[in-house]
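Example record used in the benchmark description.
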Amino acid sequence: MKRILTLALYPVLSTIACDSTGSEAESDSTDTEVERDSTDTEVERDGLRPTLAVGEAEPAASTPLRAKALGRMRNAAKYFHDNVARHGGYAWHHNATNLNERWGDIQLDADQIMIQSPGTADVTIAFVEAALADPATPALKTYARDAAMALRHGQVKSGGWRLYADFKPTPTLKACYLNTTANCSCGGCKFTVYDDQVTQTALIAMMRTDQLLGFADAAISGSSAYARARVETSQFPTHGGFPQGFAGPVAARPALQASYPPSIGTSCGLANCYANLYTTEYWDDPTLNDNLASAFVEMLYWAKEVYPAQAATYGAMLTAYGDFLRRAQMPQPQPAWAQQYDIQMQPRWARSWEAPAIAGQESQDVMWALLRLYQLDPSVPANRDAVGAALAYLETVDHANDTLIHRYIELDDTSPANVGFYTVNPNGYPVQFSPAPPTYQNYGWVVPSQLAAIRAEYDRLASDTTVMKRSCQKLRADTAQAVDTAVNNERWITTYSPGGPRSGATPGDYLDTATFVKNMRTLAEFVVRTTTDCVAWNY
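Model output (structure tokens):
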């Protein structure tokens, strides 16, 4: 149940690599060499844009921070690839003093990797962006391919990916694998997983690696093509939404407008009137759970960008998905989104603690997705308009000085109480919505409010539909932090106090994949943009 703002904040690096002259100028420098001419005070300046005199040229893109960023990026990539990878893939957390202690949402052995974010798929994307930023270092392409091949190993016959991959001749993390020993009889083994953005992120990684390698690697190209063909048949025809996953093509559904469940406004209570009445499992129904909306948009965006011969197909899928998101918006007085919908496009139960309700986290993600769709195609103003209506409502229900929003908000079609939902019965559905302390702890009942950032992007897009980027000032600050915190100029350490499903982990210093990915992508972005729109910030 993670939300790492990687897909909500639009991708800044495209297939365009940085200026080759700028890269080549740095190519013979080691990290130690480029630091000789810099001082700590230069790195720690206050981040304000330097003032240029009238007629003064922008400084050349070979001054200290960019050189340091290149050095750290190369060193960190090499260390992570050479020391941390197992079979080319990665866990979420790696014990810094015993790299054989590896954790995802479970402990992994040396033959097991995480696909789910922040795992091997995210590392692959980070290597791709580093390779595009620094074409003078061909090893970065090798690292990206190795990680992508690890993803390929975990691909399942239904087309996409599951949470893990296992490289043992007889895998203990079983799945109906496409390219290795398959077990297709275990529960769920045939199922391609969209939940937690698993397949979306893995396919983005595979497509971008295919493009990076010039579509010349048959294994990578074949994996991407196999997955895309099956993704195309997993979008509900006519309806436009996607299920939580699939084992084969999905059937058409009617394009209905979302509505309130029949129990709303009655006296019998949500749980008594509206539970266990479904003809399908929740994972086969349209879902927005765990921020899937922006993940689907980005997956289809990259498919359209990377494979222009099929742009019409992926463009039509994007359009259909935007239509679904707008139809999934609940009517007044709560024009936001639920986590899960049934065949009637009414909010439905999923797991016993996931109620038919307005979903604060998922509603925020849908708004990011709709704004991204509008940014990509301003000829559909309805996508932005839907966000305006949702903001007007949700800005009245976030709390703690507008910093938090409930994961679930009680449905009410007459006078919403806007009560955050917590209480869960151990063996069944909750009796009522309540502000009582949660009884199920391993879940994000309250999430950070992103409404101010969404409002800012909504306002910006009224006059500027270019892609959203970090400001040069923020990018420089983030880059300086990544540069300054790299241990031995090659790795980032996170102190880890394990808990929950990882309570058996050894406390101490870990190499955290999420931190590696965040810093690598920041460094790559800085290297690129200090040759384009952020030249003056390279000091």
